[in-house]
Structures are given as structure tokens and as C-alpha cells.
Amino acid sequence: MPTFDIARIGPDGRAVIAGRANPGAKIVLLDGGKEIARGEADQRGEWVVIAQDPPLGAGQHELRVVQHIEGRAPVTSEQVVVAVVPEQPAAAATPPAAGQPPREETLVMIAPPGGGPAKLVQAPSAAGVPRSGDLALSTLDYDDAGHVTVTGQATPGVVVRVYINDNLVAEGAAGADGHWKLTPPDPLGPGKHTLRLDRLASDGKPVARLELPFDRVVVAPGTKDGRRLIVVRGDSLWNIARAHYGTGFHHTVIYGANKEQIRNPDLIYPGQVFSLPKVN
Q1: What is the spatial distance between Cα 111 and Cα 117, in angstroms, rounded to a whole number?
Q2: How far apart are CA 175 and CA 179, in angstroms?
Q3: pLDDT tens-digit map of 171-187
Q4: Which pTM was predicted?
Q5: Which CATH number is correct for 3-122, 2.40.50.180, 1.10.3720.10, 3.60.21.10, 2.60.40.10?
Q6: Most exposed among 135, 202, 207, 219, judged by the fewest C-beta atoms under 10 Å?
């Protein structure tokens, strides 16, 4: 089964993709089912392909790789590389002027088989996802009753504590894959709050810390349709859907429920609050 190891895609859409397959296999890279590049696995089964003529266009792409071995049926990767290439400004060839924000980078994730959480391999900005050392925040969401769920990543096995408004509300360890998910027992009231995450060392002292202000918005009567999620830097509709529904293909459900806030489904912004409808 061919797999992806590395996906580097510039803001101009030029891509370098690498992975593993059977030694000597012919490799075809597909973008939404269309061939965009070819390569061949070496004696160790490692392959590298470059897609730059033409580069990937602005917008969302789903990349898969197909392994071809003579006399055998082609095998398509179960992994998917999801990339969102930003729109390029008119003066993209020149660096940003002093005091101007850096240009947006391409968001790249590798979605594993079986509905697990996607792995962010390239953040859409220099700041990336909220991070301190090995501690990273992935999602912060709450339901209509105010019950909060916080997810993120850290070194496998380390303890993470969640504070809201300087009160300790949850504690747990990162799993073997480095992912953690914590749900404070008490609901949160409407209004402005501050989330704090501490990653503890073996002696119980914090060695990494993140703080993030957020609002729990009041949901008007008749509009309660599931959970609410606060977008953080590095989020996309695809990885939100992967985290909450088990498949990125439900990103259209989130878009449909929040169209009044989302002008472009490839561009969502930190601080936006989305509803997450229930799905069958």
C-alpha cells in the first residue's frame, strides 16, 4: 500500500511530495482523480515527485498516490493529502513591505485511513497553530448547554491541564499518538473567557503554556442545532469535520450550516464561531 511521508506545497502551488511504496513501483500522483505527476520508488521503496508544471491552483486539493506494478492491479493510497493553496496577491513576487503581515502559506494535512484525526504538516501562516514547545491546541468547542471540549497534541504520555479563567477544570495525558482530548465536567456560562493550557514535566511543574481568549456566544432560541466551535489558527473546514464527524467529507455540512459567515469555504478565520450540526 503506497503511503505519504512528506508534503511540501508552496504558496504558489509548487509541490514536493514524498512517500513509500513497493521497491521499483511506478508512482502516479492524482489531484481529485486527475494525474498531475509521475515517479518511481527506489530500491528502498522511497519515492519523490514534483508537481510544478503547472503548479496547484488556488483552492482546496485532495491528493492521492497510485502504485503500479507490472502484472498486478494498481493500488491507491488510503491516505489523502489535503491542501488549501491561498489566493495570490497581485504583487506576490515581492516580499511584504515593512509592517505588513506575511503572505499566507498553503495549508497541508495528511488524512489517515479509518477516520482518525488528520495530521497538520504545514500551517497556513508563519504563526501556525497555537503552540508552545511540544504543546499545541487543535480545537476548542462547546455545545448549546456550555459543555466544553478541548483537543490538541503534545509528547505522548505527558500530562496536560486545562484552566478556564484561571480555574483548573480538566487534566489528562496525551495518548500514544500524541493527541489529547479533555472535557471539563461543568458547563460554561455565556461571555468572554480565557483558556489556559499547561504541559507538565515529570515533577508536576509546567514547562509549556498556552493562553487563548474566547467567547461563548448566546444561541438564539430556535437555532440550536448541535455544538459550537471556535475557529483557531490552522483550522480548516476539512480538519474540523475530520475531528468532529470522523470524515473530512462532512466539511460541506459545516459550510451549509454557517454560510452566512463563510464567504469562501477555503478561508476561515480565528475567532469565528461555527455551529456543528448533528449528522446521521
Answers
A1: 7
A2: 5
A3: 999 999 898 999 999 98
A4: 0.49
A5: 2.60.40.10
A6: 202
